[in-house]
Design a protein that fits this description.
30% strand, globular, two-stranded antiparallel ribbon, single chain, 10 strands, alpha/beta, 7 helices
Length: 188
Amino acid sequence: MSRLIYSYLVSLDGYVADKDGGFGWARPDEEVLAFINALEAPIRSYLYGRRMYEMMKGWELDPQYAAMSDGSADFAKIWSAAEKIVYSTSLHDIATTKTRLKSSFDADEIRRLKMDAPTDIAIGGATLAAHALKAGLVDEIHAFIAPIIVGGGLAMFPPDLRLSLTLTDERRFQNGMTFVRYDVHTPY
C-alpha cells in the first residue's frame, strides 16, 4: 500500500501563504530544491486542489520555470512525468498532460488509489489536504519550515484538526530552513 504524503513549504507560524496570498518568502534555494527533488523523484501521483494546480502547472507549461536553475529543471521533469488528479468545482478543463479532473473529494476513491498505486502519492493544497487529514488518509507530513513569521494567511492545517505524530527525520539547511518529517497516527 502506498503512503499519502502532505508536503509543504511553511512559515514558522504555520502558514503556507500570507494574508495577501504570497509565499515568495518560502522559495527554496538550490540546496533545499535538491533535497525536495530527491524526495519527489519516486512520487508518481499528485493530488491537488484548484489553487495549487494553477500554481504548479507552470512546471510543465512555462519553460521559464525549468530555466531558473538545474534544480528547477530537474523538478520540472519530475512533476511533468507524474500523474495528477485535480479536485475542483470551478475548473472545466485541464491544461497539462497526465492530468484528470474530479469535481469532488472522495475519501473512498483515495483509499482505493492508495491500495493500487505502486509508489507513494503526494497531496498538495492546504484546503484539499484538510479533507484528507480529517478523513485519516494522510500517512506522512513533510514540512519545510521557512525562518519567517507572517502573522496570518492560509494555514497548513485546519484549526480543528488533532493528530498524533512521530518525528522520523529532520534536517537544517544553510538558508535557515528546516525540514521535518512526521508519521501520522490516526485516530488521535
